[in-house]
Write a structure and sequence with these properties.
By secondary structure, the protein is an alpha+beta fold. The strands form four sheets. Strands 9-6-11-10 form a four-stranded mixed sheet, sandwiched between helices. α2 packs across α3. The longest helix is centred in the C-terminal third of the chain and has 14 residues.
Length: 204
């Protein structure tokens, strides 16, 4: 890559690598600070390539999945859900944690869609993958698009509890949902990523 003509940095050129790459720096010490089952917190001492040592806190997470579920009239299924940490009731995508051993991401989100919304889907397409906040957690998300939707089979939905007992399912035209994101009215990060990714994919 050649230098930018006016600014710091290098210019990407066709044929150059344009993707995230794996990299690990030596961990010379590690201390478990908290383990609550849902998340754990550890403090690692890293060594950089120049030999310097420094500490970084990592919130360990099992990972999560989410879905942009679209009906035949291009309405997206959103959940209005109370979130204590944010102090808000947020509009979110159906989502869940990868907390069942051996369950694939696709099977996990298919199960979560039924459990949270009473909706099932026949067609599933991977959309995007992302790290929720890589400066402090290893939480990794996989988001899918679901279509060919039907009501979930009778008896397939477990009883909901806690916040999930008070969720509301809202069907929103896709264009209006994207507009709400751009105007700052939908602020959940997975919802923003999923909705804008679908919209961008349609525009080529």
């Amino acid at each position: 890559m050649r230098p930018h003509p006016q600014l710091p940095g290098r210019l990407w050129q066709p044929g150059d690598e344009l993707e995230d790459t794996d990299e690990r720096w030596p961990v010379v010490g590690s201390r478990r600070r908290y383990d609550g089952g849902f998340v754990a917190v550890r403090e690692d001492t890293l060594q950089s390539p120049d030999g310097a040592e420094f500490d970084r806190v990592v919130v360990e997470h099992k990972g999560a999945v989410g879905v942009v579920a679209l009906d035949a009239d291009d309405r997206v299924l959103l959940l209005r859900q109370f979130r204590h940490a944010a102090g808000k009731r947020l509009l979110e995508l159906p989502a869940g944690i990868l907390d069942v051993d051996g369950e694939s991401a696709r099977d996990a989100i298919a199960r979560e869609l039924v459990e949270e919304t009473d909706v099932a889907a026949d067609t599933w397409t991977p959309l995007v993958e992302l790290w929720s906040s890589p400066g402090m957690t290893d939480e990794h998300w996989q988001v899918f698009v679901a279509s060919d939707l039907t009501p979930a089979a009778a008896g397939s939905v477990p009883e909901r509890e806690h916040e999930e007992a008070h969720m509301e399912v809202v069907w929103v035209p896709m264009a209006d949902a994207v507009r709400a994101v751009l105007e700052g009215r939908i602020t959940d990060s997975m919802a923003i990523v999923g909705l804008l990714a679908v919209w961008a994919a349609r525009s080529g």
